[in-house]
UniProtKB/TrEMBL annotation:
InterPro entries: AC_1, Autotransporter_pectin_lyase_C, OM_autotransptr_brl_dom, Pectin_lyase_fold/virulence. It comes from the Bacteria. Pfam families: AC_1. It comes from Silvimonas terrae. This is Autochaperone domain-containing protein. The keyword Nucleotide-binding does not apply. Residues 78-173 form the Autochaperone domain. The lineage of its organism: Bacteria, Pseudomonadati, Pseudomonadota, Betaproteobacteria, Neisseriales.
Length: 174
């Protein structure tokens, strides 16, 4: 028996998801722009897919998913401290847009946390400076993708798209 599958199609160009969901299974955003209006909107049991030309704007709210497949645009939306936690992340040529204070080591940043699973595929990571003046990092830098509980990332899972600049300093993805 296959697991339940939900396909969300926007009839308008913008949909706001502002109530917690409790169902499980696969959910596909197939068209439009969707935004979260609170933390923890998605059921932790979601297997979530963002198709091409779809924007999922988390608006700075923390979300936890079982898995995320990204062929569109997943945007953090402005807090520079929002977490997206998932067991598995699959990049299918999509973009992940994060906000980061481009400053010293451990500066505040939105993060994707791979918790016990793996990040694979290819995703372009774009970084918006959320106000950092640019300070030389001398240790581990600013964490933007983090693994925990045995989580891993494939070598080419994330690549920096465009420029990440704070003051006179350029920041690179390592």
């Amino acid at each position: 028996m296959s697991s339940p599958r939900t396909v969300i199609r926007s009839i308008w160009s913008f949909g706001l998801l502002n109530a917690a969901t409790t169902y499980t299974g696969s959910t596909t955003l197939a068209a439009g722009t969707f935004a979260t209006g609170a933390a923890g909107i998605f059921s932790r049991d979601f297997a979530f897919t963002v198709q091409p030309a779809v924007i999922l704007d988390r608006q700075g709210f923390d979300q936890t998913l079982t898995s995320l497949t990204n062929s569109g645009l997943v945007r953090t939306g402005g807090s520079a401290e929002a977490l997206l936690t998932t067991t598995n992340y699959i990049g299918r040529g999509g973009t992940l847009a994060i906000d980061t204070y481009l400053a010293a080591d451990n500066s505040p940043s939105d993060k994707v946390v791979i918790n016990g699973g793996i990040a694979t595929g290819t995703t372009t990571l774009t970084v918006r400076n959320a106000g950092g003046s640019g300070i030389l990092t001398t240790a581990d830098g600013i964490w933007v993708i983090q693994t925990k509980n045995g989580g891993t990332t494939a070598t080419e899972a994330f690549m920096l798209g465009g420029e990440a600049r704070g003051g006179a300093l350029d920041y690179r993805l390592f």
